[in-house]
Amino acid sequence: MTDPLIRIAEALERLAPAPLPAPDFSAAAFAWHTGPDRLEPVARVARVDIALLIGVDRSRDTLLANTRHFASGLPANNALLWGARGMGKSSLVKAVHAQVRAEGHDLKIVELSREDLPSVQRLLAVLRSSDARFLLFCDDLSFSHDDQHYKSLKAVLDGGIEGRPENVLLYATSNRRHLMPRDMIENERSTAINPGEAVEEKVSLSDRFGLWLGFHPCSQDDYLDMIRGYCASYGVPVAEDEMRAEAIEWQATRGSRSGRVAWQFFCDLAARKGVRVV
Q: Which 8-state DSSP code applies to residue 200?
């Protein structure tokens, strides 16, 4: 029979496992996972060149300057990229990271999923122990009326008693400017005893980001310029009239026009022309 003390020790070890070994920070990109906590290196980040991001010049220049400041050890702001779907919010974050690294800065990026926000304090403790500088990237961030994950996000934005680690900066993307549905804001305002205070805690969450960068639906000219840029970059031979007619028909059948739709059309065009997109 197993010694009761041994069984108790094993049970305690399962409840409080031994600390994980220090991560290898030699990679440029990581994904944070829990159960158990770990930083997994990402060998190849799916991204496009920053020069191919059309129609977001002001946001691109602002985010690039902010990231350069952070990578150089200067003051920088957390950034919220919000707005229309498919307009390159997450693509811009990844492209800016690549550009700053290409300029000689050893800047790393860590992807944190919204579902893992409750573990963010543990992640910050891991990153704080490193001499490297990290962009903490949370994509497609939003909260429902009964979602308490937003409280964990404050640990990154405000830092609590320890303060946010000096070597960590948060970039988040969202379709919502205030990270919560408009109908939820209106509902809480209409039913609360004090309408102003009812939603202040959640609405003010977005105010904690120093940079707000808005992304809006693109024009037809920008949409076509995106496709032209992809064709030139990947060497897809196509006549201007043919590309224009097919691209306009494609976006009409989709009922929308965005950077994502432009990329989807380009992939279809490249396949029909026999060109591999790597």
A: H
8 A C-beta contact, residue 93 and residue 171: yes
Mean pLDDT estimate for the chain: 84
Q: Which of 198, 267, 255 is nearest to 226 (CA)?
A: 267
What would the pLDDT profile of 154-177 be if each residue is shown by its tens digit?
767 766 666 678 999 999 998 877
Residue 195 confidence (pLDDT) above 60? no
Compute how many other C-beta atoms are within 10 angstroms of the C-beta atom of residue 209: 19
Helix H or strand E encompassing 39: strand 38-41
| SS3 of residue 111 by DSSP | strand
186-190 contacts at long range (C-beta below 8 A, 24 or more positions apart): 187/145, 188/145
Beta bridge partner(s), residue 123: none
Give the N- to C-terminal CA distance of the chain in Å, as an integer.
60
Q: Bridge partners of 137?
A: 111, 171
Q: Is the overall model pTM greater than 0.70, yes or no? A: yes
- State the Cα–Cα distance between residues 204 and 44, nearest whole angstrom: 36
Average pLDDT for residues 119-137, to the nearest whole number? 92
